[in-house]
UniProtKB/TrEMBL annotation:
It comes from Paramecium primaurelia. The keyword Transmembrane applies. Keywords: Membrane, Transmembrane, Transmembrane helix. The chain crosses the membrane at residues 381-406. This is Transmembrane protein.
Length: 528
């Protein structure tokens, strides 16, 4: 098959061969350039993709470590402000009891508003104050006269009403003080309502505080678990409770402040934030979720957080290991079942509170960054292909122009070839000569090649005429001189005859000459 192709190529005209060769070169260059472009593009895409992934991952890890430090500091400071508030309240009551003769009572503390009355919302914000109620008394407002601890709480906090502007009136700074007697004396700030059936001793925060006091008698404050607030407006919260003592170091009650599970400040942090207690219950939730959470949930709830029980154990172990500070910047990589992607997880342990702060990758932000990188890569690929297309178009145009130029250059050569063919045809035989003369009747022409052909023909006629005028001997000698290379003389026979001759006789010489003549004329007759 290959020989057939070569033979077909040889049989083609020179111009067709040049064109075919040019097309083959063009295709080879285009294929080679396309392959090089594809390989270069794949290499660039691989490098850019892995570089962007590495850069995003490195940036994500650094920002998560930094966010963990900042959020941890923010939460600790926020909790410390609440703890300082109720600690100062406790120390104030002890100081008041010791210095009560020196204080002048300005006005009495009022009871809380009856919940059956029409409440004006502005009242809650324009008149923040302490109010009281007794859940162990039928009318909820009659104070006992013989209880010193209730008198201490009542008189001391009544005095603090004169300084209510020092407290925040926001609901998140809600303060509640409860004694441990059967009267169930209850003081709240900044608002309060008389609610029948409310028993502070049955609330989760109160039960937790009493239990923690038995387990840790030297501790002053404790964190509760998340619970449903009695007032529906505030949904789920958790509390910090502090023990209250009198001047004799006797336990007289509990001071409580509430903390919401959703901190608006976390919305400005572009990472998922979870604060859990020792049981894995979520206290703070700042996650990118598309669901409305209205119930208590735990960190190992896959449908909400994306982590399971095993992941929780890994997180707790990682948080404990970070306490050594030897590997504080190490990151944990876990598969999030909610987002169905691997995420970077950093956590920090709050030793005193026994809390664990978890911060992990904001998948939406990563997706946005990846999309931006992909758009940049797609833009680069588009412009790269456009440049490659322009280059290929220029190459094709150049090859086309070269083919046109080659065709123009070959036109005179083609004409010359045709003229040579005609000249060869003219010199072939008499019939061809006559045909040529019939087509070229003008002896003198403006075409130089035709004139040259006519002169060749005239020169040939002169040669033929001179050949006919030669004598027979001259023609014979010319034929012998022309055919001597192809003569059929048997030199071996002549050599043998010379050996056999004992003498060079005249007769024998004549015989040898006859033999030579016969051989020569025999070759001549064959040629003629």
């Amino acid at each position: 098959m290959f020989k057939c192709i070569i033979q077909a190529f040889k049989e083609m005209r020179m111009r067709s061969q040049i064109f075919l060769f040019e097309i083959i070169i063009l295709l080879f260059v285009l294929v080679l350039a396309g392959a090089a472009t594809y390989v270069e593009l794949r290499i660039f895409y691989y490098i850019s993709t892995h570089s962007s992934e590495t850069m995003i991952s490195t940036l994500d890890i650094k920002q998560i470590n930094q966010a963990t430090t900042l959020v941890s500091h923010y939460i600790k400071q926020k909790h410390q402000r609440r703890i300082n508030l109720i600690e100062h309240l406790s120390s104030f009551l002890i100081t008041y009891q010791m210095q009560s003769p020196k204080f002048t009572k300005v006005k009495q503390m009022e009871s809380c508003i009856n919940s059956e009355l029409l409440l004006i919302p502005q009242y809650f914000y324009q008149t923040p104050k302490f109010c009281y109620q007794l859940h162990g008394v039928h009318d909820l407002i009659t104070l006992p006269q013989n209880n010193q601890n209730i008198s201490l709480l009542y008189n001391g906090l009544s005095l603090m009403n004169e300084y209510d502007l020092l407290y925040s009136i926001e609901s998140s700074y809600f303060i509640q003080v409860v004694d441990n007697s059967d009267y169930k004396f209850d003081i709240v700030y900044p608002i309060g309502m008389l609610i029948n059936g409310y028993d502070p001793k049955t609330r989760p925060w109160y039960i937790n505080h009493i239990k923690q006091m038995e387990l840790h008698p030297n501790e002053q404050y404790f964190y509760s678990e998340v619970y449903k607030v009695f007032i529906e407006q505030y949904d789920y919260q958790f509390s910090i409770t502090h023990s209250l003592f009198n001047s004799k170091k006797q336990f007289i009650g509990i001071a409580k402040t509430m903390l919401t599970t959703n901190d608006p400040s976390f919305e400005y942090v572009l990472y998922n934030i979870i604060l859990i207690n020792y049981a894995g219950q979520v206290l703070y939730n700042g996650m990118e979720m598309w669901q409305n959470l209205t119930d208590i949930f735990y960190v190992f709830n896959e449908t909400i957080t994306g982590f399971n029980q095993t992941d929780w154990y890994k997180i707790e172990q990682h948080a404990i290991n970070r306490l050594s500070r030897d590997n504080s910047n190490q990151i944990l990589i876990l598969y999030n079942k909610y987002h169905k992607k691997f995420v970077h997880v950093q956590c920090e342990k709050f030793q005193k509170e026994n809390f664990t702060l978890i911060i992990f990758t904001n998948v939406s932000s990563i997706n946005i960054m990846e999309k931006q990188f992909q758009e940049i890569e797609q833009s680069f690929i588009f412009w790269y292909f456009l440049a490659a297309s322009i280059i290929i178009s220029i190459c094709s145009l150049t090859i086309t122009i070269s083919l046109i130029v080659i065709n123009s250059i070959c036109q005179p050569l083609i004409k010359l070839t045709n003229q040579v063919s005609l000249h060869i045809l003219q010199l072939g035989n008499n019939i061809n000569q006559q045909i040529f003369k019939m087509f070229n009747k003008q002896i003198y022409s403006l075409n130089l090649l035709n004139n040259l052909n006519n002169k060749f023909m005239n020169f040939q006629e002169l040669l033929l005429q001179s050949q006919t005028t030669k004598c027979e001997t001259c023609r014979l000698l010319e034929k012998m001189n022309f055919n001597k290379k192809e003569s059929n003389i048997n030199l071996k026979l002549i050599r043998n005859q010379n050996i056999l001759l004992p003498e060079f006789r005249f007769v024998e010489q004549i015989q040898v000459q006859d033999i030579i003549k016969k051989s020569l004329f025999q070759g001549e007759s064959m040629i003629i």
